Amino acid sequence: MVSRVLITIDTELVWRHHAAGLSWQDNFARSYEAAGVGVPYQLRVLAEHGLKACFFVDPMPALLHGLDPIKRMVEPILAAGQEVQLHAHPFWAGAGRAFRELNEYDAAEQQALIAQARELMIAAGAPAPIAFRAGSYAANADTLRALAALGISYDSSHNGCEHPDPSAVPLDRDQLAPTLVEGIIEVPVGQIEHQPGKLRHLQLCAVSIAEVRAALDHAIRQEHPLVTLVSHSFELASRDGLKVNGLAASRFRTLCTLLAARRDMLTTSHFADLADLPLGGDARPYRSHPLRTLGRMAEQAWGNARYERVRNVG
């Protein structure tokens, strides 16, 4: 059995850059272009390897900055033949004055916010979205009911290592198989059990390539229908968006090489390809070997010291 792989890349202007007083143009440079390893670079690497990816784009900054930055995000992704779906951080709607996650709003407010985000996305040139991911994975049953009412078919906000707060989709935290919840097909974020009883999601800055490879091998052996990986538009750069994070960039390119070499067993997909996706089943996280966990912890410590440490001058 072939396991499908969703490479999902949350794509957004970063709030902390806005809060620091940067213009949207400077924020765009640090969040979307991100030291030369942002979305344009990621699109090139994906194309080189013949892979598909879904970019979850947050259009909510248009409420402050107009549609121009969102159009500049969407157009290159679609031109590259990749998929744009809907992401939303609702704090842009209040300009941060009431810093709240989506699932802190009531059902009617959530539906209004998602509808607003959808209309902004379409106005920026994207097709009507069929999939959604809440900012910070902060979705609950009301979110799913709102999506169903708005005609959005898929959600990918269930993140077991962030469950039940802020990720409050009503599923078991270990649930990995896509399943129908509140009229929506929930596509959980991939996980490994990196320590007994502790999950870690399959995000490039959170797990090593050895852990990703082991999780993918596990998915093939256990015949998982789908594995969902996560990254961000800015994730291959340092936190300030000014320098390449060599560790994260290496992980991304190695992941693409791995998936290209194993496309006979691991097929990258868009949400638009998932009409025949089997639902349910007992897909559970890979239990990582302690040595892999220790290796990643050492790798992370080195990467943080090498790429994130601020050096004093003088």
What percentage of amino acids are in beta strands?
15-25%
Whole-number total of structural domains: 1
The CATH class, by name, is Alpha Beta
What is CATH's topology name?
TIM Barrel
Q: Assign the CATH superfamily.
A: Glycoside hydrolase/deacetylase
Shape descriptor reads globular
What profile does the largest beta sheet have? Answer: 9 strands, mixed
Helix-strand category: alpha/beta
Portion of residues in helices? 25-40%
**What would the average pLDDT be, to the nearest integer?**
93
Q: How many beta-strand runs?
A: 12
Q: What series of H and E elements makes up the topology?
A: EHHHEHHEHEHEEEEEHEHEEH
Overall description:
- With 314 residues, this protein is α/β, with parallel strands linked by helices.
- The chain has a single domain, classed as Alpha-Beta Barrel (TIM Barrel), CATH 3.20.20.
- Helices cover 37% and strands 17% of the residues.
- The strands form two sheets. Strands 1, 2, 3, 4, 5, 6, 7, 10 and 11 form a nine-stranded mixed β-sheet that branches.
- Helix 3 runs parallel beside helix 9 and helix 6 packs across helix 7.
- It starts with a strand and ends in a 7-residue tail after the last helix.
- 47% of the residues are buried.
- The mean pLDDT is 93.
